[in-house]
Design goal:
CATH class: Alpha Beta
Order of helices and strands: HEHEHEE
Strand order of the largest sheet: 1-2-3-4
CATH architecture: 3-Layer(aba) Sandwich
Number of helices: 3
Number of strands: 4
Oligomer: single chain
Number of domains: 1
Shape: globular
């Protein structure tokens, strides 16, 4: 992973990312285009982060129930943020 924008606009290093406790993903237009299911390599990498103890969060402008099929597999402990922050699902609720 090359890095991601961190606080203050700086680029986070791999070490910063490895120490993160929560990893958030903006789904639409980043790993997913046109409502298609995310490429199989992405959930595999995300699953590795989950197994390493990262709390996952997925955000989308779509409603949460429309976000689930695009993820390609369930993430029962993930925080799902839909409708541009208007809907939140924690632990499947």
């Amino acid at each position: 992973m090359a890095g991601a924008a961190g606080a203050g606009g700086r680029i986070a290093s791999g070490r910063d990312i490895a120490c993160a406790r929560t990893t958030a993903f903006d789904i639409d237009g980043t790993p997913c285009f046109g409502g298609r299911v995310i490429d199989d390599r992405v959930p595999a990498a995300v699953g590795a982060g989950e197994r390493a103890g990262h709390q996952l969060a997925f955000a989308s402008p779509r409603p949460v129930h429309d976000l689930l099929p695009v993820l390609g597999r369930p993430y029962p402990s993930a925080l799902l943020i839909g409708a541009n922050g208007g809907l939140v699902s924690v632990g499947g609720r």
